[in-house]
C-alpha cells in the first residue's frame, strides 16, 4: 500500500524540471507539504546566492503540493507572489507550505522558504502566497 507521501513523491518525480533540480518531498499531508533541494553551484546566480527563480520554483511546488494534501490531485498554480527577504546560501533549500483556506475550486496557501546551513540551522529567505486552482471546476448547474 502506497502512503500519501510516497504517492506525492511519485508525482514530483514525474516532473522533469523537478528531477533536474533534484527536488524531494519530505513531508506531505493535512494541508501541508515540505519540499527540499540541495544547494549546488548550478543553482546560484553571479553573486553566489541561490537564484530567485529557484526559490520561486520551490515555493510554487510546495504551495501546490500543500493544496493537493488538502483537496486531492488535479491542481495548477493560478497565482503566486513572493517576497525575497535575504540571500539564500548554505547546503539545503527548504520550502514549507500550508493551506490557509481550501475551497472547491481554489486553495490559498502560504509558504516559507528557508536555507539551511551546514549545521542544519534555518534562515528565512523568502515568503510566498499562492492561489491553487482545480483543473476542472464543477459547473453551477451540476452538468
Explain this structure to me?
- The chain is of the alpha+beta class.
- It has 3 helices and 6 strands; from the N terminus they run H-H-E-E-H-E-E-E-E.
- The chain has helices spanning 4-13, 16-21, 52-71; strands spanning 24-29, 32-38, 75-84, 92-102, 106-116, 122-134.
- The protein has a 6-stranded antiparallel beta sheet with strand order 1-2-4-5-6-3.
- The N and C termini lie far apart (34 Å).
- The mean pLDDT is 95.
What percentage of the residues does DSSP assign to strands (E)? 35-45%
Shape: globular
Q: Averaging pLDDT over every residue, what do you get?
A: 95
What class would the helix/strand composition place it in?
alpha+beta
- Give the biggest sheet: 6 strands, antiparallel
Ranges where pLDDT stays below 50 over 5 or more residues in a row are none
Q: List the secondary-structure elements in sequence, H or E.
A: HHEEHEEEE
Helix content: 25-40%
Radius of gyration: 15 Å
Q: In which order are the strands of the major sheet placed? A: 1-2-4-5-6-3
Question: What are the main properties of this structure?
Answer:
alpha+beta, 143 residues, 3 helices, 6-stranded antiparallel beta sheet
Outline:
The protein is of the alpha+beta class.
Which helices and strands appear, and what pairs or packs with what?
Blueprint: H1 4-13, H2 16-21, E1 24-29, E2 32-38, H3 52-71, E3 75-84, E4 92-102, E5 106-116, E6 122-134
Amino acid at each position: 500500500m502506497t502512503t500519501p507521501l510516497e504517492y506525492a513523491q511519485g508525482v514530483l518525480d514525474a516532473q522533469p524540471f523537478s528531477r533536474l533540480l533534484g527536488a524531494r518531498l519530505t513531508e506531505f499531508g493535512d494541508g501541508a507539504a515540505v519540499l527540499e533541494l540541495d544547494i549546488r553551484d548550478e543553482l546560484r546566480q553571479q553573486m553566489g546566492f541561490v537564484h530567485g527563480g529557484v526559490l520561486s520554483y520551490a515555493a510554487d511546488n510546495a504551495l501546490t503540493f500543500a493544496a493537493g494534501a488538502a483537496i486531492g490531485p488535479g491542481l495548477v498554480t493560478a497565482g503566486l507572489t513572493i517576497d525575497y527577504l535575504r540571500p539564500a546560501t548554505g547546503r539545503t533549500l527548504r520550502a514549507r507550505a500550508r493551506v490557509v483556506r481550501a475551497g472547491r475550486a481554489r486553495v490559498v496557501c502560504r509558504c516559507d522558504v528557508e536555507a539551511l546551513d551546514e549545521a542544519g540551522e534555518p534562515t528565512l529567505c523568502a515568503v510566498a502566497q499562492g492561489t491553487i486552482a482545480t483543473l476542472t471546476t464543477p459547473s453551477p448547474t451540476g452538468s
